[in-house]
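PROTEIN ENTRY
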Amino acid sequence: MTTKTITVTLLHERGMSAIPVPFDPKAAFGKVRAPVKVTLNGYTYRSTIALMGGHLFVPLRRSHREAAGLQGSETLAVTLELDTATRAVTPPADLVRALKAAPPAWERWQALSVTHQREHVEAVEEAKRPETRARRIDGAVRAIAAMPARAPKAPRARR
């Protein structure tokens, strides 16, 4: 397994956090936008190296930062390991029913990236009240059904 451990200062600005990547991920992992398992402060999560504005980084969502017990500006060792496992999101049954009942929402759901699927699922599952959950499901179905059609993503072969 390809692994790289680096010592970096986390970036934290306007509520957003990221882990800078000070090496060439293509040389280390075979591609720039490499899927990785990130371990920091004893906590591990899955992500993808991003390139934005000429800078390489790994996103550090608030939920991950809090689970790792971090404020967002610490200097610490971070381990990035190439993640070759399949990524999939299992939507809750009520969201699946609503998507399938509103063609072409289900087909468009299947074409969404894992990140976008996860964001919709988290919004639904984090609702505290049934009415909020129903409203979030309705909003997700309308937004997904209104998206332009795309071909479903084929599983990628990992090298």
Notes: The two ends are 11 Å apart (CA to CA). Residues 84 and 158 are 6 Å apart (CA to CA). The helical segments are 25-29, 62-67, 93-100, 105-111, 114-125, 130-145.
